[in-house]
Design a protein that fits this description.
Oligomer: single chain
Order of helices and strands: HEHHEHEEEEHEHEEEH
Number of helices: 7
């Protein structure tokens, strides 16, 4: 169905570029990249697929997408893929704006709190667990799992649960509505990578957008 849709648009003189973006990449990287791309290629139809990284990776491998932009687990990159780092960030600990521990200064003060873990289904609590283990605090109390940090933030705002999320509250309109707990301990770092198949040559248009992502798009 996608091939037929692409062929239909191409037959009308509209080249098509298809890429995938995780929620974080879609919010923080894609808008600037697409804006720049469309300034140069106003006649090109851009298709953006969203979703968790496992879904995007499967669609990339199946040839449905030209490339993807998303956080990647260590085991994901292999020789069949070309991988370029685009950005990295320190995660933030978030709570609702009136949480009694919103002014905590140490991760140990949060040891008994309950958390929302977010991330790939295969390893949804990996970042929180690694953070606790790094500082010898034990095992985090996970009360809820969300594939997307956007969902996690929505639940944090209406509960006493904490979560570990990307630093993009401004971009999604939650600055001031969600408290950021700043601890002396460092939070995990996460990278956004661009991935494309090594055995597939990108079209001129897809290569142009890929280059804009690697050189021009940076998170707000």
């Amino acid at each position: 169905r996608q091939a037929k849709a692409d062929a239909s648009m191409a037959s009308r003189g509209n080249p098509v570029v298809s890429f995938g973006a995780s929620p974080l990449a879609a919010i923080s990287l894609a808008p600037a990249a697409i804006e720049e791309f469309r300034r140069r290629n106003s006649d090109v139809v851009v298709r953006c697929a969203n979703g968790p990284y496992a879904k995007l990776l499967a669609e990339l491998r199946a040839g449905k997408l030209d490339f993807i932009a998303c956080p990647v687990l260590d085991s994901s990159a292999d020789n069949s893929l070309v991988v370029d780092a685009v950005s990295s960030h320190k995660s933030i600990i978030v709570a609702n704006a009136s949480h009694p521990l919103r002014k905590a200064s140490s991760l140990r003060e949060l040891a008994e709190s309950k958390w929302i873990a977010n991330g790939p289904i295969e390893r949804p609590d990996a970042s929180i667990t690694a953070m606790f283990q790094r500082y010898g605090i034990g095992v985090p109390k996970i009360a809820m799992y969300c594939e997307s940090f956007v969902d996690a933030l929505a639940h944090v705002q209406r509960s006493e649960l904490l979560s570990l999320c990307p630093p993009c509250l401004d971009a999604i309109g939650l600055s001031g509505k969600i408290a950021v707990i700043r601890t002396v301990e460092e939070t995990p770092e996460q990278s956004i990578l661009l991935m494309r198949r090594r055995d597939r040559v990108l079209s001129r248009e897809a290569h142009t957008l890929y280059e804009i992502f690697t050189k021009g798009a940076r998170p707000a």
